[in-house]
Description:
By secondary structure, chain A is α+β, with helices and mostly antiparallel strands. Chain A contains 4 helices and 8 strands, in the order ββααβββαβαββ. Chain B has helices at 20-27, 41-58, 103-117, 133-141; strands spanning 5-6, 10-13, 63-67, 75-80, 89-94, 125-128, 145-146, 160-163.
Amino acid sequence: MNPARTLQTPRLQLRLPVARDLPVYTAFATSARAKTVGGPFETAQAFDKLAAMIGHWELRGWGRYVIELDGRAIGHCGPLDTFGGTPEMTWTLWDATAMGQGFATEAVQEVIRHLFDDCGWSDVKICIDPANDASHRMAQRIGAQAINVPGPARWPEAKTYTLTRKAA
Amino acid sequence: MTRALHTDRLILRRPNGSDAAATTAFYQTERAQYVGGNVPEFRAFSNFCALLGHWEVRGYGLWAVTTKTSDDIIGLVGPHHPQGWPESEIGWLMFDGSEGRGYAAEAAKAAITDARTRLGWTDIVHYIAPQNARSITLAERLGARHDPNATVPKPEDPCLVYRQPVEAS
């Protein structure tokens, strides 16, 4: 099946990115916290990045979900494929106050379960800033294996992991 | 459903997945260097994703331009206004092989008229790289004049701002 447009976890709702996410996403993307994902970005770049998340869904039929907690957007997670090859699983919490409570893990594990079990995907890769300790710990927690290959073209210095259906 | 615009020779419609290959190829060419291109494939693809998303976020965006004889995209022309940009732009990018026939001017005139009448735009500018002589010529042909006092979207990489007269169409 094609990936669902909404997913649910015990505490979170996952849905497609939309125009009303722009203020919250922009606040994150232009802040110092965006350093681990190649930022901080200019306001117009933040617009382009959210717009690209939306357009990716239109082109691929799947993409990154916005993570909602009690109706409030706190981050995004989901697969990304900018030019073919193994899709990349991504996650980012926009809201610093939402960190440290397992929300990213809960959301990512549900997306991975859905892609592997419901949609038949075999593997994803994960690319993480070398200094982003929290994300490295999370990658290991969800069963990803570090592999010794360069990051993607847009981000060669990233550390790369692979996550396969049987390891997840 | 967004309507399409029709000119004598062209149709301007909302871009979709069928335009991805041609647009992504264009953004990777050197000719695209003044319009956010001459970039690697992943960036070209992201540019096109963002262009589609602009339509979702704003309700309008660059139109895919086709001739009336084929649905193949030959360029992108239309209103463009990312958050943070000082003014509302009508932009254009014509793909290889579609230049020199007046298509960009024909499409831009239709897009300007539509932006004025349907979107209610009064102030319309064209942001043009200083080295992009063909686009400067086109902006002048469309009746725009260089505005040296306008604010530019990227002060660290300033472009020229060509402004349409407020009453013209």
